[in-house]
């Protein structure tokens, strides 16, 4: 046991501290030094500050691996959490770089600051095994995301989406907190291991069932699983593009990771270790996964707005990823982390393309008609992202699905029907992704060629490259996840 | 130079990467595309030479394996290897390929799809080099299929010509039939040995443990598992290398641009099948007792029959490239025969020498076609000896090498095949087939040269005859370089100084003139006599009195019109396939189409209808419930101030209601599922 002194706390939470301080620094740089300059200068200054801080945090994470647990699981640092944190911070850099060329707001320092606070919230979220800290950091994340969604003050849609997001999120959070209090009442603890020991020692009671459902409600809201998905289409459509990208990418990574950790370590038998056995919550998650798969993929078919289509496809993808949690073993967790990272890359990439087209006012799918002639590079990247989301080999989306499906099937062959449903739904999903690509590549348009900033093209191209690379060589990412996972007992 | 093994992957990756870059270039960037393709292959040639030098110093097999994909608990591993066989093939492919790339600069100069052409060529080179260095049958198979794809793309490069499009399809489909066998063999091999890595520290599928186990494992009809797998893999090789009965695609493939015919359908790709057999040789030759395995017996017979049959058909052809195509099929038969009766070194030696002189023949033919305004029929050529002196000289050297005229490259390599066939313990049949084939080879090549280069000029009446001109230096220089090799390359593998054979087999090398003795010399004399007789008869029939008119019947046609016409019609093999295999598959297709239309389509339509209904329902919900509230919200906001009240009356409440209902329902279900 490492004593929870202030010094130790600082030592173990150094990356989070760096990111939070960077948020303040970006704010200070913008407010104190570049006020009154042109927007592009302000974005550059604040953006550089933010990226520098993030790079510093990544370097600290990579160069100083420091596993340990502090203060009854309030801060648990393992190679796995550090790896996920590296990914989260990297995504923050990508989002910040995509935001730099936009002009929806004059509050530049605030915008980047809030993004960094959200990142700090996500980082704490993945490196704790204490329910109360999970709740607090989840709220830090959620509040930041509400603000980010509302940031485009000139657009009524943005405020409306944020308000709906906030109301829905507030209710989900209160259920979640209620669930935590019930669990505390049942077990007398808020540390995941002790909770697990108490709740799995006797058969399920109505109280425990309610508590579990409430916990799942809280996380289901964060990961946009049906039936807790209603806020998603509005937030994706209404929020500024970089904000929606953040909601769709790194927030998903952090939420799914902590969701899996809580379900595996906190609510199933033999706490403290990942193990292959059927958990009591399996029927619950099976329902949620089924609903997400069916509602997400079928509703996406009927969308005419590209962003709403991405939102419903996100709901469908949440269904696939729940299969990884249902596997409830190390294999499943590895598949889930691989899936969520590659999924986040492809989704953020699609939002990056949208960000580049922001001045064109692209919202409807038909606005994309003939894009291949007007912006061939962006169109090609969009092709890579959407085909990866549809799960076409050799792109990374295919292997994500493959690993998740096989993990679920090998862990519990009773899930075979759900795997089959998921495969059928991924066929359905191909249809609506191809509808978008058909507009891009088959339809004609008279529009002029679209000039996109070089930085945006570099960032989007880089993400497309990663999607291809992780698909052709899944070992790059899998080995990293696997070696990080090997340190967790199972 | 040990680093070369570690970086061997660069050799195929460089041209492949060049192809990827060229694919994104605009059509107008001709110079850049050509520079990229030629430059990357040039660097590959350099690396291949370094690798070759490395194997000269360390002939032992070296390999590197890496994890690639994980399936369940198993990693699929791939890797590359470097041994003398690989090194020789690498140098041959990159060197011949580079010359042909340069030649294409001239040949394709007026084609509007120049960049696309170089993209495909570079992709082909990358895939072919991948086949050569692969240390995993799966990786080899993947590169093999890319090679097949590029072959399809390049044969059909002038896709606006219907024959070219048809030939491309035919090539693709016929080779796919062979590849099915290869695929089955690969699966079976994986099932028995548990790995597709060739060499893996004793655990690979070509290493002693696995091969011995498979040789001892009997299957039906007296075949061992190793022979059965070997034969399945040979199916793939037969498809790619145009062995009877899958040879029908290769002559049609001549519809592609001539550099393609030279590179893919003469020197490199068609040799991939021979290379595959050589690579899998430990598996092919494995027996528990002594003597040749049944797989090698079959290969020997197939090779010998191919060698003879294709030589026969070549006699009756009039298209300059088709003659060469059938000659290629025939020579590939010799290579297979050589592999089966004499081992890797014998077959590979002929492969290497053949690559040089056949590439030279094709490039020479290209030069003729280019010079004669796209005329391909030898009856309408004539008299080119004076008009195209460089082409004539180099073509004559290549022709002598192909015939096996004493001291030229083909003499040494073909002689060795015939010698091994003569000593074969099973039967002397292949030897006699091969000997007759050698006679025919000399005969049809003499006929072709007489028609094209001697006699008066006989331009086709239908075309406007432009003056014939010698090709530009960018095309003749590759011819000259290749002709040096065609003449002299044989001396690296003479019986007295078998450097090539000892290099491939890792034996000590000694200069030994004693090898020219007894049976060896008498066989050499016999084969020389055969070749000279073939050339003499050919000259007597076609050269001694010049052919003055294009329309006059062929010398053979006057004697045996029926037989000659059958040869001209390629012995009706295509027609035979039409009424058997293709008719049968048409019948099946019709039956399946009926089932598809009336049985399956109904089911699919039903499912599609259900899906449409569900998605309509969803879209109704989306449009009327969610979007209506949304629009209502926006309108309210636009009017100002009443947002909150709107929300309290509108959708947000219902969102939250859904949350509450979901909570209750889920809790009940969870509890009941455990209580019940």
Topology diagram in text:
The complex is a heterodimer of chains A (490) and B (676).
Chain A: H1 6-12, H2 14-33, H3 39-63, E1 68-70, E2 75-77, H4 79-99, H5 108-126, H6 131-149, H7 156-187, H8 192-199, H9 206-223, H10 232-238, H11 241-248, H12 250-266, H13 282-301, H14 306-327, H15 330-356, H16 371-374, H17 376-390, H18 396-411, H19 416-441, H20 454-472, H21 475-485
Antiparallel strand pairs in A: 1-2
Helix pairs in contact in A: 2-3, 2-5, 3-4, 3-5, 4-5, 4-11, 4-12, 4-15, 4-21, 5-6, 5-12, 6-7, 6-12, 7-8, 7-9, 7-10, 9-12, 10-11, 10-14, 11-15, 12-15, 13-14, 13-19, 14-15, 14-18, 14-19, 15-17, 15-18, 15-20, 15-21, 17-19, 17-20, 18-19, 18-20
Chain B: H1 3-6, H2 10-23, H3 30-57, E1 62-71, E2 74-82, H4 84-107, H5 114-133, H6 137-155, H7 162-193, H8 208-216, H9 225-240, H10 249-252, H11 258-267, H12 269-279, H13 281-284, H14 294-315, H15 320-342, H16 344-371, H17 384-387, H18 389-403, H19 409-423, H20 429-453, H21 473-488, H22 499-505, H23 518-543, H24 555-559, H25 561-568, H26 573-639, H27 643-649, H28 651-675
Antiparallel strand pairs in B: 1-2
What does this structure look like?
The complex is a heterodimer of chains A (490) and B (676). With 490 residues, chain A is mainly α. Chain A has 21 helices and two strands. Chain A has helices spanning 6-12, 14-33, 39-63, 79-99, 108-126, 131-149, 156-187, 192-199, 206-223, 232-238, 241-248, 250-266, 282-301, 306-327, 330-356, 371-374, 376-390, 396-411, 416-441, 454-472, 475-485, and strands spanning 68-70, 75-77. A two-stranded antiparallel ribbon of chain A has the order 1-2. In chain A, a hairpin with a 4-residue loop joins β1 and β2 (75-77). In chain A, α5 runs antiparallel to α6. The two termini of chain A are 21 Å apart. The relative contact order of chain A is 0.09. By secondary structure, chain B is mainly alpha-helical. Chain B contains 28 helices and two strands. Chain B has a two-stranded antiparallel ribbon. In chain B, β1 and β2 form a beta hairpin. In chain B, α4 runs antiparallel to α21 (473-488) and α12 (269-279) runs antiparallel to α16 (344-371). Chain B starts with a helix and ends with a helix. Chain A binds chain B through residues 156-157, 159-160, 163-164, 167-168, 171-172, 175, 203-204, 206, 209-210, 212-214, 216-217, 227-228, 230-231, 233-234, 280-281, 283-284, 287-288, 295, 298-299, 301-303, 308, 399, 403, 406, 410, 428, 473-475, 478-479, and chain B through 67-72, 611, 614-616, 618-619, 621-622, 626, 630, 633-634, 637-638, 643, 647, 651-652, 655-656, 658-659, 662-663, 666-667, 669-671, 673-675.
């Amino acid at each position: 046991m490492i004593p929870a002194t202030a010094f130790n706390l600082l030592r173990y939470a150094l990356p989070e501290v760096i990111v939070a301080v960077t948020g303040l620094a970006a704010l200070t740089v913008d407010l104190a030094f570049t006020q009154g300059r042109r927007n592009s200068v302000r974005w550059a200054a604040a953006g550089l500050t933010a990226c520098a801080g993030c790079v510093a945090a990544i370097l600290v994470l990579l160069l100083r691996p420091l596993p340990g647990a502090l203060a009854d699981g309030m801060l648990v640092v393992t190679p796995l959490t550090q790896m996920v944190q590296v990914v989260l911070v990297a995504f923050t850099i990508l989002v910040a770089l995509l935001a730099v060329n936009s002009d929806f707001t004059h509050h530049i320092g605030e915008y980047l600051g809030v993004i960094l606070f959200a990142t700090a919230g996500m980082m704490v979220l993945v490196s704790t095994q204490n329910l109360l800290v999970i709740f607090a950091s989840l709220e830090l994340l959620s509040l930041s995301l509400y603000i980010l969604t509302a940031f485009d003050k000139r657009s009524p849609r943005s405020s409306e989406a944020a308000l709906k997001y906030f109301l829905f999120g507030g209710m989900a959070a209160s259920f979640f907190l209620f669930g935590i209090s019930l669990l505390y009442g049942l077990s007398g603890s808020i540390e995941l291991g002790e909770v697990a020991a108490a709740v799995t020692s006797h058969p399920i009671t109505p109280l425990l069932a309610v508590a579990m459902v409430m916990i799942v409600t809280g996380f289901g809201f964060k990961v946009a699983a049906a039936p807790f998905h209603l806020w998603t289409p509005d937030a994706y459509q209404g929020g500024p593009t970089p904000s929606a990208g953040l909601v769709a990418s790194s927030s998903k990574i952090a939420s799914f990771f902590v969701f899996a950790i809580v379900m595996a370590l906190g609510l199933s038998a033999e706490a403290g270790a990942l193990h292959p056995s059927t958990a009591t919550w399996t029927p619950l998650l099976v329902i949620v996964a089924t609903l997400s798969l069916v509602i997400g993929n079928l509703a996406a078919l009927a969308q005419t707005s590209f962003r709403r289509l991405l939102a419903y496809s996100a709901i469908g993808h949440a269904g696939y990823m729940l299969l990884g949690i249902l596997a409830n073993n190390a294999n499943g967790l590895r598949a889930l982390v691989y899936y969520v990272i590659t999924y986040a890359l492809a989704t953020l990439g699609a939002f990056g393309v949208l960000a580049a087209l922001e001045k064109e006012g692209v919202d409807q799918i038909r606005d994309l008609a003939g894009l291949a002639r007007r912006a061939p590079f962006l169109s090609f990247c969009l092709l890579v992202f959407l085909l990866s989301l549809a799960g076409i080999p050799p792109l990374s989306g295919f292997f994500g699905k493959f690993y998740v499906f096989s993990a679920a099937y090998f862990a519990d062959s009773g899930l075979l029907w759900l795997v089959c449903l998921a495969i059928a739904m991924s066929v359905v999903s191909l249809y609506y992704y191809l509808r978008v690509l058909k507009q891009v590549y088959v339809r004609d348009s008279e529009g002029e060629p679209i000039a996109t900033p070089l930085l945006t093209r570099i960032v989007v191209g880089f993400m497309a490259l990663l999607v291809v690379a992780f698909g052709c060589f899944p070992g790059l990412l899998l080995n990293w996840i696997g070696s990080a996972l090997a340190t967790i007992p199972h | 130079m040990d680093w070369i093994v570690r970086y061997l992957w660069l050799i195929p990756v460089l041209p492949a990467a060049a192809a990827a870059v060229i694919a994104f270039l605009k059509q107008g960037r001709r110079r850049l595309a050509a520079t990229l393709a030629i430059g990357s292959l040039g660097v590959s040639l350099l690396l291949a030479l370094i690798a070759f030098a490395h194997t000269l110093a360390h002939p032992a097999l070296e390999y590197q394996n890496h994890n690639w994909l994980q399936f369940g608990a198993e990693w699929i591993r791939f890797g590359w290897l470097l041994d003398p066989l690989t090194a020789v093939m690498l140098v041959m492919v990159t060197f011949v390929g580079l010359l042909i790339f340069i030649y294409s600069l001239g040949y394709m100069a007026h084609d509007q799809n120049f960049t696309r052409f170089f993209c495909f060529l570079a992709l082909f080179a990358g895939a072919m080099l991948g086949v050569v260095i692969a240390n995993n049958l799966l990786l080899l198979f993947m590169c093999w299929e890319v090679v097949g794809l590029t072959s399809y793309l390049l044969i059909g490069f002038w896709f606006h010509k219907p024959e070219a499009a048809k030939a491309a399809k035919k090539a693709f489909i016929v080779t796919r039939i062979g590849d099915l066998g290869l695929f089955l063999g690969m699966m079976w091999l994986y099932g028995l040995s548990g790995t597709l890595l060739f060499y893996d520290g004793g655990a690979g599928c070509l290493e002693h443990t696995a091969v011995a186990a498979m040789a001892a494992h009997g299957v039906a009809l007296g075949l061992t598992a190793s022979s059965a797998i070997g034969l399945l893999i040979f199916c793939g090789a037969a498809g790619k290398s145009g062995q009877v009965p899958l040879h029908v695609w290769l002559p049609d493939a001549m519809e592609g641009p001539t550099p393609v015919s030279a590179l893919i359908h003469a020197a490199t790709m068609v040799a991939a099948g021979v290379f595959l057999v050589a690579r899998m040789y430990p598996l092919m030759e494995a027996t528990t007792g002594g003597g040749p395995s049944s797989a090698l017996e079959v290969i020997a017979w197939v090779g010998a029959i191919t060698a003879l049959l294709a030589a026969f058909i070549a006699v009756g052809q009039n298209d300059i490239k088709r003659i060469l195509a059938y000659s290629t099929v025939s020579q590939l038969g010799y290579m297979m025969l050589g592999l089966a009766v004499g081992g890797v070194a014998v077959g590979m030696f002929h492969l290497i020498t053949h690559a040089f002189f056949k590439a030279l023949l094709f490039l020479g033919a290209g030069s003729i076609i280019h010079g004669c305004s796209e005329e391909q029929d030898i009856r309408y050529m004539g008299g080119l000896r004076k008009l195209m002196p460089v082409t004539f000289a180099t073509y004559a050297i290549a022709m002598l090498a192909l015939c096996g005229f004493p001291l030229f490259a083909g003499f040494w390599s073909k002689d060795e095949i015939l010698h091994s066939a003569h000593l074969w313990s099973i039967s002397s049949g292949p030897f006699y087939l091969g000997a007759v084939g050698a006679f025919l080879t000399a005969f049809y090549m003499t006929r072709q040269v007489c028609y094209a280069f001697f006699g008066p000029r006989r331009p086709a009446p239908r075309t406007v005859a432009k003056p014939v001109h010698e090709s530009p230096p960018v095309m003749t220089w590759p011819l000259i370089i290749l002709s040096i090799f065609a003449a002299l390359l044989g001396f690296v593998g003479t019986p007295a100084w078998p450097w090539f054979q000892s290099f491939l087999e890792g034996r000590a090398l000694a200069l030994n003139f004693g090898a020219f003795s007894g049976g060896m010399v008498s066989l050499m004399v016999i084969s020389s006599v055969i070749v000279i007789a073939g050339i003499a008869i050919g000259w007597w029939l076609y050269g001694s009195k010049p052919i003055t008119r294009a329309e006059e019947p062929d010398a053979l046609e006057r004697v045996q019109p029926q037989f000659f016409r059958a040869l001209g019609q390629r012995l009706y093999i295509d027609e035979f396939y039409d009424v058997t295999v293709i008719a049968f598959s048409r019948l099946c297709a019709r039956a399946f189409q009926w089932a598809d239309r009336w049985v399956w389509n109904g089911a699919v339509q039903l499912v599609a209808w259900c899906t449409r209904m569900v998605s309509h329902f969803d879209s109704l919900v989306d449009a009327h419930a969610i979007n209506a509230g949304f629009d209502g919200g926006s309108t309210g906001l636009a009017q100002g101030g009443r947002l909150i009240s709107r929300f309290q009356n509108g959708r947000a409440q219902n969102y939250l209601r859904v949350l509450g209902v979901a909570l209750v329902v889920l809790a009940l279900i969870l509890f009941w599922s455990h209580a019940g």
